[in-house]
Structure formats: structure tokens, C-alpha cells
Amino acid sequence: MTAAPLDLASIRLAPKVLLHDHLDGGVRPRTVIELADEIGYEGLPSRDEAELGAWFREAADSGSLELYLETFAHTVAVMQTSAALRRVARECVEDLAADGVVYAEVRFAPEQHLDGGLSLDEVMEQTIGGFEDGMRAVQAESGREIVVRCLVTAMRHAARSREIAELMVRFRHQGACGFDIAGAEAGFPPSRHLDAFEFLQRENAHFTIHAGEAFGLPSIQEAVAYCGCDRLGHGVRIMDDIVVGADGLAELGLLANYVRDKRIPLELCPSSNVQTGAASSIAEHPFDTLARLRFRVTVNTDNRLMSHTSMSEEMLKLVEAFGYGWSDLERFTINAMKSAFYQFDKRLALIDDVIKPGYAVLVG
């Protein structure tokens, strides 16, 4: 048998694992418009599906994390009711499954969805319910299985992280797999939320931290050394602690060595990292350097609407930039599955029964 071509159609057939994807950053443009009509939201820059999708992409291409985050005002505004949350969560699962994703951890900030009168618990119930609706629909329509779990996020500029951490723990047996903090990094260090992280550690709960995207090594240092994160959300700026000589040999600083030695996963999001200015281009993205140095790199979408992307498209961009083959994509996928906030035996089962056989077919 010959190997499948490394094109978008073939990559879509490959089983994928997604660890860093924002629910409010992946809403279908048509859904944004319809939900806005339902609640009378007048703030959309366009009510044409194609134009609105293009606006999100163009507005996100700012080179600034702070400006990039402003695009979320519109998606969050239309996600304030039970029906809206449930619909967006269901469609998220359907869209990921159509792209070949077999396991995903989708994150969102419940505190941003209270304007319609819902409580934090109701927001969680509806969102997780939507994920469950989507998983059942995929199984019924295609016979395939996808596992989607919820990463509960607190906003780093707010003061509710301990409350949101407690919310995550309450729902951990109902589909919540871990905790995260997100939002602008500069001026809002991870250690500001130390109480939440210490609580989670006492509760034996997993957490990742957005760090090393718009802000450099101090953010990563705090996330790792002070807060004890399991994974780094982005972490692309770990390159600031690596010097690559003219001979191609790399010298790692203490922090970079520690992150690599401890196998702390990096939730890299190539297209988004370019949009926010963390990398100048896909070709200049440090993904390949980090992969060659055997950091635990993973491929992620971050925000599928704002970046007009999918897991398959992110993988294809890396193939085109760095010449990766099927074995490389399989390694990145296994890296992600190993790093998932999922039971060990279930991680192994997905690797052995789904991921490896799925790539074996494509390799030929």
C-alpha cells in the first residue's frame, strides 16, 4: 500500500487530539447572526455570513493579543441564554468531529455568560449538556465517537478565579476536566491567582495556564514554578530561553531545560500565535525548533472563527512550512493524547485503538 498524500483531504481523515480551543472563538458565523437576531443584539459589524466571517479574521490579524481579544465581545454577547450555550456547544462538537478530531478539551469562561440571568451552575449545565448533545448526534449520524470535555476558564483580569476553580471541581464528574486562566497576560501574572491553583492542587485537579504568548519568560516561570501548572497554554515564548547557534546547535536556559525535562506540554497554536504577534509567520514559528529539541509540542486551533482554521488546516500549514510527514503528525497527536486531562487507561485506549490504527491506514 502507498501512503496517502499529505493534503488537506487526507489530513482530515487522520485522528486528531485538540487541547486548546475556545468555545466562544469557534462559533459558526451563521450561528452568531441567528443568535443575535433572537436577542435583538445590534452590535454585529455585518449580518452577512461571509462578510462577518471575514471581519472576524481581519479584526484578529492585529499583531496584538489585547486587540485580538476584542473580537470576542460579539460572540460572548450572543451566548447569554441556555439555548444559545447549548447550541454553540453542540455545533462545536459536530464541527470538530467533521474535521477528524477524536478527543478535545474545549475551554470557556462561565463568568462571561451571566448577563442573561443564568447562574454559574446553569451555564455549566447547559454547556456540558450541549457537548453531550453533540457527541450523541455524531454517534447517531456517523457511527463515530468523539470525546469532548470542558476546561473551565477564569479571566485573569477579574477576581473570581477561586470561585471558578470551585465550580470546576463541582462539575468534574459531569464533564469538566480541568481549569485555566485566560485573557491579557501583561499586568495580570498567574501568581495573582495562586489561591485558586493551591485549591486545585489540594483537590487533585488538573489545570493549564495561558502563559508565554503575549508576555515572555516571567509569565512561564510563574505558571510553572509558583503555580505548578500541568500544561502551558501556548508557551511559545519559551524560545526566549533558547539560543540556537549558527551551527544549528541549541543551548537551553534553566527554565527551558526544566520545561523540557518535566515534559510540560506546550499547547501551541500556530495561526493564532502569528495573529497575536507571538510569532512573525508560520515559517518563523518556533514549533519546529521546539519539536526537534523534543519538547512536548502539541498542535491546536485556539480560535477557529478568528483564525479561520481547523486542526487539519493547522497541521497542513506545519507540513508545508517544515516538511513534516505522517509519522510527525502522529507523534504530535500522541503527544496531545498523553497530555490530556483524561484517565490514564482511557488515554492509552485512544492511542492504541484509535490514533495508531488511524495513522497506520494513512501511512499505508
UniProtKB/TrEMBL annotation:
Record-linked InterPro entries: A_deaminase, A_deaminase_dom, Ado/ade_deaminase, Metal_Hydrolase
Site label Important for catalytic activity, positions: 234
Comment on bound cofactor: Binds 1 zinc ion per subunit.
Binding annotation for Zn(2+): 20, 22, 210, 302
Gene Ontology biological process terms from the UniProt entry: adenosine catabolic process; hypoxanthine salvage; inosine biosynthetic process; nucleotide metabolic process; purine ribonucleoside monophosphate biosynthetic process
A matching Pfam family: A_deaminase
Annotated catalytic residues: 213 (proton donor)
Cofactor: Zn(2+)
Gene Ontology molecular function: any one: zinc ion binding
Signal sequence coordinates: none
Catalysed reaction, written as an equation: 2'-deoxyadenosine + H2O + H(+) = 2'-deoxyinosine + NH4(+); adenosine + H2O + H(+) = inosine + NH4(+)
Adenosine deaminase domain: residues covered: 15-356
The protein's Enzyme Commission number: 3.5.4.4
GO CC terms, sorted: cytosol
Binding site for substrate: 22, 24, 183
Enzyme class, broadest EC rank: hydrolase
UniProt function note: Catalyzes the hydrolytic deamination of adenosine and 2-deoxyadenosine.
Family in the record: Belongs to the metallo-dependent hydrolases superfamily. Adenosine and AMP deaminases family. Adenosine deaminase subfamily.
Name recorded for this polypeptide: Adenosine deaminase
